[in-house]
Specification:
Elements (H helix, E strand, L loop, with lengths): L2 H6 L2 H12 L1 H11 L6 H25 L6 H19 L3 H29 L2 H33 L1 H6 L6 H17 L1
Helix pairs in contact: 2-6, 2-7, 3-7, 4-6, 5-6, 5-9
Length: about 190
């Protein structure tokens, strides 16, 4: 089977794509969200980047210690992440933003690691580079569309609307994990 066709039939590829696309509005607008504080933009950006790097490290450690592997835990983590995104988008204050941003990035990294790991396990070594390159290209294309849309929504309706505009992409992984859990329960 052709690598492209095989890739598009892999459900974990699609879930990873949806999670990454769903988080684009947060990724694109977190700096704007933190800039409303009394500190300078440089320090806000520095603090956000420290949080991102720390969260990435923590997410990696969590992925090694606690498996999400298509379980109720994964569903819970996705839902908690969406709630954190909503809270981050609609609250004010630098420290509140940082406190909400840290667990959001940790949970998002944990979710991405789970889907990425599942995708790694389902493809052969000689297909891996092509599959993940295709994944990155599709996310980049989504960002080309999502970026201006988030900016327009932010300018027209406010930062909260802009930051939450892509969260609906998380609905499909949530529904998928609920369906998977129900299917697994019926099998038992």
């Amino acid at each position: 089977m052709h690598i492209g066709a095989k890739t598009f039939k892999n459900i974990d590829w699609w879930m990873l794509l949806l999670v990454e696309t769903g988080s684009l509005s947060m990724y694109l607008l977190w700096q704007v969200r933190l800039s409303g504080a009394d500190t300078t933009q440089v320090w806000n950006q520095f603090a956000g980047l420290v949080v991102m790097n720390s969260a990435g490290y923590i997410a990696g450690k969590l992925s090694q210690k606690i498996s999400l592997a298509h379980s109720f835990r994964l569903l819970s983590v996705i839902i908690i992440n969406v709630v954190l995104c909503l809270a981050l988008a609609w609250t004010t204050g630098f420290w509140v933003g940082i406190i909400l941003y840290l667990p959001h990035v940790i949970l998002l990294g944990w979710i991405q690691n789970m889907y990425s790991g599942a995708l790694h396990m389902s493809i052969s070594d000689n297909e891996r580079a092509t599959v993940f390159s295709l994944q990155a290209a599709v996310v980049a294309c989504a960002a080309i569309i999502v970026g201006p849309a988030c900016g327009w929504l932010t300018d027209s309706y406010g930062l909260g609307v802009g930051m939450t505009s892509t969260l609906f992409f998380f609905l499909i992984p949530i529904i998928h994990e609920i369906m998977r859990a129900l299917r697994d329960k019926r099998k038992k």
